[in-house]
Structures are given as C-alpha cells and as structure tokens.
Amino acid sequence: MPYIEPxxxxxxxxxxxxxxxxxxxxxxxxxxxxxxxxxKTHGSLKISNGKWMWWSRRIGGYSALDYLVKVxxxxxxxxxxxxxxxxxxxxxxxxxKPKVEPPKVLLLPxxxxxxxxxxxxxxxxxxxxxxxxxxxxxxxxxxSLPYHNLVCVGYDGENQPKYASYRATNQxxxxxxxxxxxxxxxxxxxxxxxxxxxxxxxxxxxxxxxTLAKMNGEDWRKDTLLSLAxxxxxxxxxxxxxxxxxxxxxxxxxxxxxxxxxHFDNDKVGRKATAALQAILPSKYEVIDSPPPGGKxxxxxxxxxxxxxxxxPKERNDAR
Length: 320
What we know:
The protein is α+β, with helices and mostly antiparallel strands. Helix content is about 30%, strand content about 20%. The protein is built from ten helices and 15 strands. The protein has a five-stranded antiparallel beta sheet, with helices on one face. The protein starts with 5 loop residues before the first helix and ends in a 14-residue tail after the last helix.
C-alpha cells in the first residue's frame, strides 16, 4: 500500500460530502429542503448538517472520504488520491465549517394562577385526576393565559423546557406548537424501565394510555411514555423514511432501550406509520404494533370504557 502523509489524509477527511458533490458532482445532488439533500443514484442516502446516512444500507459518515469508500467502493488510497488530486486542480476550493444552527428559544405562554379549566377539560376526556395532578406538579402541563389552553411541555436532560404544544379547552380544534419548540424534546413521562418505551402520536393519547393502565391496576409510572409531537408521516417508499426526530433523540440518549410499543391510531396514517418504524428501525430494536383495542385512538377507547361521549374527527388521509 502506498504511503500517504498523515497531513494529507487529515486534509482529505476535512472535505464534507455536500461540498464534494456541489463542487465535483453537482448533477448528482438533489435538494430536498433548505438544508437536506439526497443523490440521484441513491434516493435513500440523505445529507444534512454535515453528516450523511444511507438508510437502506444503515451506513453513514461525515466526510466525502467515507462516502467514496463506503458507497462508491473506492479503496482508501483511491479515495484520498481522488479528493486531494481534485483539490490540487482547483486550489480555490474552500472547506466551509458546518453551519451551526442557532439554538431555538422556546416562548411559553403566560401561566394562569389556577389549572381548573385544563383539569376539567382533561377529566372530561377521561384522564385520571391523580395523573392530571402529577403532570401539573411536575410542570408537564399547565393552563395558559389569556385563552386557558392546555399546554404540554417537553424537557431536555437538564430539565429545561424545550418543547411545548397548546390545545384549546373548548369545542374548537385549535392546536399547535408554541413558538421556538424543538420537537427533539417532545412531551414525555419517564418511567423506571429503561429498556422499553411506549410511543404515541400526541399527549392526550399518552395520558389516556396511562389512565387505562391505572384502571387495570398497573403502576403507570414505571413505564416510559413518549409522544412524537404529532402525526408521523413516512415517505411513499417506506424504506426511504427517516426516524421521527423525537424518537431518534430519545434513543440516542437512552441506549439501553430495546423494545418499542407503537400505540398509533387505528387509521390508514397510523397503520402506515407503524409499518414504517418496523421497517426502518435497526434490528436491535423489537418494534411491537399495539394500537388501541377499539376506537380511532386511545382517548376514543378510554372514553368508550368510561361511557363518555366524544365527537369523532374525520378519518385522516395521506395528503394531510
């Protein structure tokens, strides 16, 4: 094997894949969104924030050197010579530093001095009173002003609020994320079992599941419950889908998790989203499809069990 100076290898490693493709193979690059790209040859290869991942093969890296070796099957020497040879031809090439996104600043609405309205709202949807009180005490939910909406909060590892969603407590369907929300830190209740996690589309379904567990005599606080902060929409080709950011972040911070229970809705979108997670998550995870036993979602099922009436929303479709 020819000897290559360590300094030359290090220079080659500094060339990121996006810069390489923009400079030398621009026709191969396909822009997906503002900072996300793929390639014409490999549709499941995604480039974002200085990293790339070939999801269909479960391999990835940071540099163009990794790409040439792992994707294009160059030998290490060929890859270094290709990069440094081309760099020498165009000495004006610069290696930009990866863009550092400014941290999001979460803007939480003003808190009401009481939580009476959200308590009445959640209790009216069947949520157990003790669970409501627990979430209020932990700062996971609160009542906002001036509209008295229900606000559900997600925290980072240092117990700082990073995500919040709001939902009207009247008959309207008003809901959304608070300004500056980071979906990596969605609404969750962390339990004692670090090897399992239960996934839900929204906070109401999460709280409904906890209530059903309590009704069945189970200790709902031992389970880790994670909301994905909304409907997960996989790609048309499921194998090209990406893992929801809330789940990706959670798994990276909880490496001992091995089993995932997916409690998505009983509709076409929920069924497709479940199938996507079963297809794209690494084989080290056991992904169990566990939809509500009846109704569209877990709050539907809870209301049915308690004899509570609930207005049925229309069936979602893939275009939503």
